[in-house]
Amino acid sequence: MPSAIVAYVRRIDAMNRFIGRIAMYLIFALIGVLLWSSVAKTFFSPKLWTLETAQFVMVAYYVLGGPYSIQLGSNVRMDLFYGEWSPRRKAMVDAVTIFFLLFYLGVLFYGAVSSTAYSLGYFGTEPFSFFGNLAWAFVTGGPDAAGELMGYLETSPSAWRPYIWPVKVILCFGVLLMLLQCTAEFFRDIARIRGEEI
């Protein structure tokens, strides 16, 4: 395999391993929020923020840990025939079926970017140009200029009403990491078909 591809695979693996190892500790934050929710409901007045905070932490845990899960091969698979195949045959099938996953993740990424733009007050049909204009306004004019491009910030319809954009940004970042990891897995499968290991 070309050295650029090997370097790409190793860098993506290292980045997703680092982020995934940090993200797995979010389960303790989730436990803490849910524990506080139970204690508050039993001994004090129920808190409005606990349920949605638990949902937001779970989204971050799941989305940021997904690429690391793919890297480890611990994702769920339909293993009717796959488990008995040779590593080379698995790599051949994976090299083809990964395009379906990449297509799905591409659609999911576009939807996440569109939803994030909507949560920042953009109601048009070009979310990528909105973020380009937003970044340009921030670089040239600072936070005030960027703030002028944003409209009404979306909030949750609950009584607590937190802003939604932070969790949507995490979703965009997590899906992008998943796309990068799947591309690295594709290159790894091509190497296995050729009899090499990355």
Mean pLDDT: 92
Q: Structural class, judged by helices and strands?
A: mainly alpha
First-last Cα distance = 8 Å
**Topology order in helix (H) and strand (E) letters:** HHHHHHH
Q: What is the number of helical segments per DSSP (H or I, 4+ residues)? A: 7
Largest sheet: none
Estimated helix fraction: over 70%
Number of strand segments: 0
User: Which stretches of 5+ consecutive residues score pLDDT under 50?
Assistant: none
State the shape: globular
GO molecular function: transmembrane transporter activity
Pfam families: DctQ
Protein name: TRAP transporter small permease protein
Subunit structure: The complex comprises the extracytoplasmic solute receptor protein and the two transmembrane proteins.
Overview of the structural elements:
This protein is mainly alpha-helical and 198 residues long. It has one domain (3-76, 85-193). It is 74% helix and 0% strand. It contains seven helices and no strands. Helix 1 packs across helix 7 (165-193), helix 4 (87-119) crosses helix 5 (127-141) and helix 5 runs antiparallel to helix 6 (143-149). It is globular, with a radius of gyration of 21 Å. The termini are close together. The model has no long low-confidence stretch (mean pLDDT 92).
List the defining traits of the structure above:
198 residues; mainly alpha; 7 helices; 0% strand; transmembrane helix; DctQ; membrane
